[in-house]
Design a protein that fits this description.
By secondary structure, this protein is an alpha/beta fold. It has two domains: 37 residues; 105 residues, 3-Layer(aba) Sandwich (Glutaredoxin). It has four helices and seven strands, in the order βββαβαβαββα. It has a five-stranded mixed sheet with strand order 3-5-4-6-7.
Length: 144
């Protein structure tokens, strides 16, 4: 049985997971948050670091603000991306709560989408996108 290291979306700790059993969803050994669940993950500072470096899958992050109308328009696009692409990890960062992360990655306006591979920024897009436009960008970024 194949084992892999998974970063907990709740506490950011690394967990060794021995695959997904029949109907079983593994949980974090520290905080008991379900692991390996698909979907959009809220990333704060400590969880962000684990997601950035803890898994070889590419990471797509939406830097947003709750007061931003284009950001609210992007929310269902990012949800659909997370649901439709199990080969990616998809997260979102609230820049009002995580100003340090926004500053670290030079996010000056929102929404900004960053594409990470191996802990490095491989792609950047500022402004709201349709689902189709985001899919095209992901294909372009994936070929680099």
């Amino acid at each position: 049985m194949e084992t892999k290291v998974v970063v907990c979306p709740g506490c950011g700790k690394r967990n060794r997971v021995a695959g997904e059993g029949e109907g079983r969803v593994p949980v974090c050994g520290f905080c008991k948050t379900p692991l390996l669940k698909p979907g959009l993950t809220d990333l704060n500072g400590s969880v962000f670091e684990g997601f950035l470096l803890g898994d070889p899958k590419p990471l797509v992050v939406d830097f947003y603000a709750p007061w931003c109308a284009p950001c609210r328009a992007m929310a269902p696009v990012m949800e659909a991306l997370a649901a439709g692409h199990p080969e990616l990890r998809v997260g979102k960062v609230n820049i009002d709560q995580e100003m340090g992360l926004a500053e670290r990655f030079g996010v000056a306006s929102v929404p900004t989408i960053l594409f990470f591979r191996g802990g490095n920024v491989e792609g950047r897009q500022t402004g709201a996108l349709s689902q189709q436009a985001l899919e095209r960008l992901l294909q372009e970024w994936g070929k680099k």
